[in-house]
Amino acid sequence: MRSIPSNLFSKSSQTEKRGEELVYSLLKDINLSKNDVLLHSLNLDEGVRQDWSEIDFLIISQRGIIGIEVKGGPVKFADGYWYVYSDKSCRNMAYRKRKSPHVQVSNALDTLKSNWLRDLHLGPIPYLKLAILCQNERRLNDFAEMQSEYHIFEEDLLHQTNLKNRINEALDYFIEHHNKKATLNDDQIKTVIDRLRPEIDKPIPDYRSHADAIELAQEAFTKEQFDTMDYLSIHDRLIIDGGAGTGKTFLLQHSARTENDKSTKVGIYTRAKGLISKFNKVFFNNKNISIINPDIAGDLIMDDYFDIVYVDEGQDLCNLEYIEIVDKSLKNGLEKGKWRWFGDFENQFYDRGNYDEEVLKLLKSYTANDSINVLTRNVRNTPQIVQSLTTVTKARIGTTVKGNGKPPKSVKAEDIIEEISKHDPNYDVEVCILHPDKIAMDELLKLDWASELAKKGAQVSSIDDFKGMESRLVVVFGLELSLSLEEFIDLYYKSISRAKVICYYVHHPNIDKYLIECI
Q: Same domain for 197 and 289?
């Protein structure tokens, strides 16, 4: 069956990776009907402080929609927990969960059905939920809540034919006992794929609030990104230009994973501290991917070391000093080697610093057709945040998805906690506090409201260090310290654009004066 994407991304757990690689190798070589599509890697390795519903594999077939949860190691049930082990002898526990494998996939598929596919009116088609236990034997099945018809065991994975027969048997059983006899035609399959394909590299959350619904709408549109991914697959040298929120970092992660799965040595350059930390977490188990801050690279970079190089927040590395570092580390150099340079080259408002227009022209001359690939669709911010950014900064933000959010709001410092508690009384929301470099973090944390949020788990970062990052709720402190209108516009753009749904900035009369000048 056709697989999207065409390669299997690595997992953080070797146990999970081993099982998913086995299942993938079997699934891609079988068909359940004349038109089957296999989706995988629907989840990201990170999902910090959020409840993600994950699906390891999703099959869209004429016969129905099938969700599959894979457990690569032996599974045992004890004391109310489901334990997954990394070895056949069950001496080394990999992890444990309260939910059984079948409940996990059931919750995930129910979320997919109700939140993503409900409006498609597909009819009474089968939504089949399967758990694959790669190192459990059927004859030793003594688990509670383990209906054998919906579980696939070690002996079912000996050959593609075995797995195909087991899936078809499970489908037949489900159709017979639930009277779900409708099938999907080719147009319906295409509609489902078009909707889900952009989400392959993103998690499927269990949305429970209005803000969740906005995020769902935001993450559902990435067709432009996938067009760019297709472009990335056929050209060696590309510049990808886009405003804040157009998904540049998402594209980089997807492409770097793809290259890494080819056993390619990948170098990722960026000066943004937040991105360096994020990439180190995302690519923790990818031995062939190196994350490099060119400011401290020094002699660590070898001549012709990387097969391909990625640059994020590339406007900050767009000068002769930095391109020489990158050029030296890339096989065949920047002129003939393989690289992707992601940046926000148009929206440079203040202290352009390292940005050199002539260097960008030089890089452009190395690309396919002497061109720059431009992203125009904002996939991060609500329309209200985009409108504010456009009005104040006159920046190229691009069009965005629909969503009934709110514009950035001025809030007095003493009211910050109260405002955030309106969203969750326990402050259990994804929060980031951003501040200009001229404010020291330890000084900021002396403020009662900032200290309390930090204790609850809020991230605290300088505005520049948070480049390329995002947070559901952002609190910006210190915009009034701007010494000029240009500096204010620069800080406003780089901070407000980090908010996915909700943004507050701490009130000060000087901010009002700058906003009046902008408007």
A: no
